[in-house]
Amino acid sequence: MLAMPSIATGTFVYQSFIVSSKDWGPYVIAQSFMVYSVLSVITLFLSGFLIDKFTSRKLLIYMNVPLLFSTFVLYYFNSPFSSFVFLGLIGISNGLSNVLGSATWAEIYGVKYIGSIKALTTAFMVFSTAFGTALFGILIDNSFSIEQIALVSGSYTLIAISLLFLIKNKLNPQYL
């Protein structure tokens, strides 16, 4: 659950670095945020329906798949149009993570301690946004290209998805 806020915040803070690295126009990322916003809102509505139908525990492993694809887009494509796809995919993961976060904890642990759980997970999320921004900055200061940063981000996301896939059966309340 920490990959999305970490990578998205790093992307948002260092968008000028991405624009200059990809040689996109000065307004391409700004225009692409509309796609991010629209897909984020659509996914927010859609994810509620999907959670009711399939449960959040089953959907959790798919939450960061669009984020992973966004790192592929950033790595492989230089066209200004790819900015719209890149931020659109981040928007989809954002919409999923906003709803799945609360629903998953309630499904696994119930609602008796949901306040404490949400406080802890929100603190981790805030830390991850700061960490992502710092990590992107350190990588940029050490002459990493945006493609290399996308590779690091994609690797982290792939590891997170793989680990979730390995423990997906343990996300069952009867197991706990």
Report on the structure:
Helix content is 81%, strand content 0%. With 176 residues, the chain is an all-alpha fold. The protein has a single domain, classed as MFS general substrate transporter like domains (Growth Hormone, Chain: A). The relative contact order is 0.19.
Poorly predicted regions: none
- According to CATH, the fold-level topology is Growth Hormone, Chain: A
Main sheet? Answer: none
- Proportion of residues in helical segments: over 70%
SSE string, helix = H, strand = E?
HHHHHHHH
The CATH class label is Mainly Alpha
Overall 3D form: globular
Mean pLDDT: 92
Q: Note the quaternary state here.
A: single chain
Distance between the termini: 19 Å
Count of structural domains: 1
* Alpha-carbon Rg, integer: 17 Å
Keywords:
single chain; 176 residues; mainly alpha; Growth Hormone, Chain: A
Nutshell version of this structure?
With 176 residues, the chain is mainly α. 81% of the residues lie in helices and 0% in strands. The longest helix is centred in the middle third of the chain and has 30 residues, at 80-109.
Map the helices and strands.
Elements: H1 3-13, H2 15-22, H3 28-54, H4 56-59, H5 65-76, H6 80-109, H7 114-141, H8 146-167
